[in-house]
Amino acid sequence: MSLDQRVFAWRGHYPNPRAGSGSLAGLRLGVKDLFHIAGLPTAAGNPDWLASHAIPEHTSPVVTQLLSAGAELIGKTQTDELAYSLNGLNIHYGAPINPRSPERLPGGSSSGSAVAVAAGDIDIGLGTDTGGSIRVPASYNGLFGIRTSHGLISSEHMVPLAPLFDTVGWLTRDARTLAQVGEVLLPDNLPRQFERSSLRIAVLLPLQNGALWTPSHQTWLKGQSILQGFKPIVINSDWLIRASQCFRMLQGRAIWQTHGEWISQNQPTFAPDIHARFQWCATLTDADQIAAEKERASLRADIDNWFTDVDLILLPTTPGAAPLLGADASWMDTYRSQLMGLTAPAGLAGLPQVHLPVLNDQGAPCGVSLLGKRGSDKALLQLAIDLCGTHS
Length: 392
Known about the structure:
By secondary structure, the chain is an alpha/beta fold. It has a single domain, classed as Amidase signature (AS) domain (Amidase signature (AS) enzymes), CATH 3.90.1300. The chain is 38% helix and 18% strand. It contains 12 helices and 11 strands. Helix 7 (215-222) links the parallel strand 7 and strand 8 (227-235). Helix 6 (175-185) runs antiparallel to helix 12 (377-388), helix 8 (237-266) packs across helix 9 and helix 8 packs across helix 11 (329-349). Residues 21-185, 267-381 form the Amidase domain.
């Protein structure tokens, strides 16, 4: 398997009469291989999916909007199988190499998009985020990334994972390009900035095997003059475990409702860890879903309370640097649960979240997230520019 095939499911020149004009003119686009593009196959990271589905006749409206704004489509980027992983490893097509930290995971499931942006092969990496699939690879590869408010951007003509939580997102090397894409894809009526120049913020202080908001996070925060009125919110490990388990339950139930029939009929070959997760999804019941929905309501009430008297919330995007390649499987299971404790709040509440690549851990990238109220997507993107400037 060539390095190129690990990153791109298809690479070439897709005809675009609008190329060279529009707000995204001159920017190279890579599209996660979940979005349908007329005339190009969609594999969703799995050869059995590819073999059992016709070549799309319609193009995702998200892709159409980006092309209409002048972006140049040069490839469809690889994804973890049906987007059901946060690691960025694919047993069929190989693992893209993390350009910023080759000995570590690239992160998934928008792995190809993230690696292609980090390597400089593309300028815009279109992806999806259900349980962290933009935020996690953004952190691991030192990129800017946004998970948008649930339902704001069309998921039509796209392979779903769990529609209850699926969102469209994108990755770039700089905050300005991240915001430029937002101007194209996000609704025009969203506020473009926060009402106050000096923002009131809360800082989420998650406790998982120690404090995840580290002195490095705090040092960065103290240097940001436009962020004021720090309200600490201590979140213990029990809450994070509840959030992770609730999200996984509802996600798993939605996944099986979406893909269970195809999996049962086709018996596709998946990586062992992904296969095990699909098998677990098949065991979930109506009673499990009802209990998880009740838990979600409780957790969402907590999240709503976080925003009392604050404009936005800061939190660590991931527990730290990307895990090393070859990490022990049982350790990775524990790590995945911890990671999803951090990514679950945005998913459970349908909120937008922007990753800023402003920190390092063990010589590898990580960073800080801006978690906003629903519909604050454009304001978060402008704030990312205010905090980090227009250059990568």
